Every structure is written in C-alpha cells, then in structure tokens.
Amino acid sequence: MVSKRRHRHCPLVLLLLAAVISVAGGEFITWEDLTMPALAAVPRGTPVVDAGVKSSAAAPRRGVMTPLNTIVVSQDGTGHSRTVQGAVDMVPAGNTRRVKILVKPGVYREKVTVPITKPFVSLIGMGTGRTVITWNSRASDIDPSGHQVGTFLSASVAVEADYFCASHITFENSAPAAPPGAVGQQAVALRLSGDKTMLYRCRILGTQDTLFDNIGRHYLFNCDIQGSIDFIFGNARSLYQGCRLHAVATSYGAIAASQRSSPSEESGFSFVGCRLTGSGMLYLGRAWGKYARVVYSYCDLSGIVVPQGWSDWGDHTRTKTVLFGEYNCKGPGASSRQRVPWSRALTYDEARPFLGRDFINGEQWLRL
C-alpha cells in the first residue's frame, strides 16, 4: 500500500494566516479573478525578475516599491519575470488584494510555491496546451540535506495560500510512471493546502498521487485530471464539477483516496457530472482514512471501473465507517451488480448535500 503522511502548519504560521484572513474577510472569488484583461502590457523598460530574485528587483529606479495588480511572466524577457516563482515572489507578504499573474505560453520547468503569507493570487495561463508548469520530483528523491523529499514536497506546484485561483494552465509532474506496488514513486503535480481555492479549465497531469488535495475547501470546475494510483488524494473538502478524470494505469489503480479520519471532519470528495476515461482497472475510491468519504453523482463511468467499485485499503473495519456513494451515474462502469455491499446507492435526499457548492460552503466565498 502507498504510505502517505499528514502535514500541519506550525502554530506561528497559523496565527499569521488568521491575521491575514481577518483583514481580508468577506472576500469572494469571481469570474473576473479568473480572467485577464486583453493584451495585459508591461511598460517598456520594466526590469525583469529571474528565478530566485525577490520582488525588489522589479522596483522603480528610485527604489520605491510599487505593488502590481497584474504581473506578467514571459520566458523571452518581455514580462515582469521570466519564471512563475519570480512572479509569486513579487506579491507582497500579507497581501490583501487580488493580484493576477499572467503566464504567457511556454513550458516552465520549475518548482513553484505560493506561500501561506500570499493569499488572493490568480495564476492565469493562455491555454492548457500552451502554458505548462512542470517538474519531475518523486518522494524517494534526495534533498540537499540527504533526506528523502517525501510525497508532500514532491509537488511541482504547491499552493499554501487562501483565495488562490487558477485558469487555463497545466500543472504537471513528468517523473516516470510508477508501477503498482512501487515504493517512493509518488510524484505530485499540484498540492492544494490553502482554503477557498478554485481551479477552472486547468489540467493536472501525473501518474501516482497526481493531485494532493490536502486541506481546505476547493472547487475544481471543468478541469482535466490524469493519473493512475490514488491520483486524487488528501483530506480536503472538494467539489469536482464537470471534470474529466483520465486514467493512465497499466493494471490496477484508483481515482480517489480520502484521508478523513473521524466523523467530526467535514472533508471528502464529491464528483458531480464528471467523466471517467482511460486505461487499466480503477477503484472509484480507497479508504485511506477510517471515515473516508467519496461520492459520485451524475457521472459517466467507463468500463475501466473495477466491478466491486471500492477498496477498504486492506482494513475491513473501515467498511463500517466509510461513506462511499453513487447517485444516478451512467456508463458501463456504473453497474451496481457486483459493488461491495458496504458501498451505497444513494437516494436523492442522501446525495443532495454533495450535489452543489453548498458542500464546500460556496456561498461564503464564491460569486460566480
């Protein structure tokens, strides 16, 4: 079985996060936050930031920092930064206003972190086939201190800030595909560890552990997510609406691994109107946590779904505590004839809490 560990922010960081959110309380993510004004321009003569150079490098010549509402990333040097991380570094710590980072076409080979101190960042590409952020770390890789990187730090892009949103961009981990049962081959393309996050028309590509949906409330709308083994996993409370789930498994695999470990946790994954395609034989979900919660509603499930549908992660006691449900799905993979007896064919009233944005308290932070 794949070994995964829970990670928490330190108390000092949590206090800082609380301070930031108290300043920015009542904010919403809107369609405006996910789009870029036509032909966002960079004034001629604006200094360009390279990887690892802090935002002061982009300050006006007199040395006075002017915060930017729009930061342009372009590999040819015509933007504010040649790298995505350089653009993130330009966002002020403790930011309380929306900053849009436009990433022009290109393959950006870099690891990127949006730290907890920088909420309200929009990462906007120019098409998932044109704007790609990619790296190739695996959990077993060795860092400069001689220790293994681990699943958590293998992410090509890690988002730890609240009110993050992204659109029209690809997040990829290009490490070689992991065979079933391999140790240390987890390779995360995107880790979401902030609250109130939205992704629209993004692609998230990898094999084992593609999307670490770690903690927080997240909304993924019309996104493509590709993987083989537990390719969506974590302890977040997330709604996947109208997404394409594409499997690249060579034998057995699984879509979702929910880490929910107690009935008091509100986490879980809800898939609504999604479509499953690809290869291999896939479990709809595995019980990583004792109280794992995964629901599929109105989804189109291809014949690659294992007839039993669900896995208890090798612990039969979890069959009494998990919530694995399906409602009004279609396709050859939706047949319930051989489903495990501890999964549930939900009624409408049972499925209703999982069907809309109320599942993620969307009325509190989405205005779409």
UniProtKB/TrEMBL annotation:
SUPFAM superfamilies: Pectin lyase-like. Pathway: Glycan metabolism; pectin degradation; 2-dehydro-3-deoxy-D-gluconate from pectin: step 1/5. Coiled coil: none annotated. Keywords: Aspartyl esterase, Cell wall, Hydrolase, Secreted, Signal. It catalyses: [(1->4)-alpha-D-galacturonosyl methyl ester](n) + n H2O = [(1->4)-alpha-D-galacturonosyl](n) + n methanol + n H(+). Its EC number is 3.1.1.11. The active site is at D230. GO terms for molecular function: pectinesterase activity. It is an enzyme of class 3 (hydrolase). Gene3D superfamilies: Single-stranded right-handed beta-helix, Pectin lyase-like (2.160.20.10). Residues 71-362 form the Pectinesterase catalytic domain. One of its GO terms (biological process) is pectin catabolic process. Residues 1-26 form the signal peptide. It is found in: Secreted, Cell wall. InterPro entries: Pectin_lyas_fold, Pectin_lyase_fold/virulence, Pectinesterase_Asp_AS, Pectinesterase_cat. It comes from the Eukaryota. Belongs to the pectinesterase family. This is Pectinesterase.
